[in-house]
Write a structure and sequence with these properties.
Elements: H1 5-12, H2 14-21, H3 24-30, H4 36-59, H5 77-88, H6 92-95, H7 100-115, H8 121-146, H9 165-177, H10 183-241
Length: 242
């Protein structure tokens, strides 16, 4: 029995998707305002989320339904480890801790893996298809905003084992549509996907305070430089007049 799950997820999470894109942190990111301290905290949170998600998928790789969406080439844990090494150095494991929102997100992944494993599909859909869809755009924004060289701190967006991301997404969605699930299960998955969007939004909202503070400091420094430059120009003009 097929219920066209991918199509139901797309339609059923439209509102949540729009809400997530309008969180202040993401709006600033998309406009090119990316601050390194906030970004590396996000990367740290995502490390814990993907670790949980990928460990649970490995645990259920022989599940009659989840096995059909078991694609290790999607895994992001190792890529995030490389990024965290770049941002924090060799002792990154001691420096990185999950925020309150990330802890809740991880706990939810572990909970549904234990109680209703098929609903893990919600989290696969929310994270991986989003990564594949907007990853290269976000990578470019991050590189420009933080003045990063190619490959520095943006391995999260690199899917080296997926040569054609568009084709992969098409095949992945088809695999979702072909899953042998009933409508009641599909409804649970869509409901959980909306909850997953909310969990991501909670992580983004935690970072807004850091971002606002960083922007304020940047503006203050820019104004100070401008004021100092103006004072120097006045002094130079006065000296010339004398």
């Amino acid at each position: 029995m097929s219920v066209n799950l991918a199509a139901q997820l797309r339609e059923g999470t439209k509102k949540s998707h729009t809400m997530a894109e309008n969180v202040g942190f993401i709006r600033c990111f998309l406009k090119g305002t990316v601050e390194k301290t906030s970004y590396r905290k996000l990367a740290g949170n995502l490390y814990f989320v993907y670790t949980a998600m990928e460990e649970e998928m490995e645990r259920h790789k022989d599940h009659p339904i989840l096995s059909k969406l078991y694609f290790p080439e999607l895994n992001r844990k190792q890529a995030l480890e490389q990024d965290l090494f770049f941002y924090y150095g060799a002792n990154w494991r001691e420096a990185v801790q999950p925020s309150e929102a990330a802890q809740a997100y991880v706990a939810r992944i572990r909970e549904i893996s234990e109680q209703d494993p098929v609903v893990l599909i919600s989290h696969l859909y929310t994270r991986y298809l989003g990564d594949l869809s907007g990853g290269q755009i976000l990578k470019g924004i991050a590189q420009t905003a933080m003045n990063l060289s190619d490959g520095q701190g943006t391995q999260f967006y690199e899917f080296d084992e997926i040569p054609d991301e568009k084709a992969f997404k098409t095949n992945y969605r088809q695999a979702m549509n072909d899953l042998p699930i009933d409508q009641e299960t599909a409804d649970r998955i869509v409901d959980e996907a909306n909850a997953a969007f909310r969990m991501n939004m909670n992580m983004f909202e935690e970072l807004e305070g850091n971002l606002v503070k960083a922007i304020g400091i940047m503006l203050f420094n820019a104004l100070t430089r401008k004021r100092n430059r103006g004072a120097t120009e006045l002094a130079t003009a006065a000296d010339s007049a004398n």
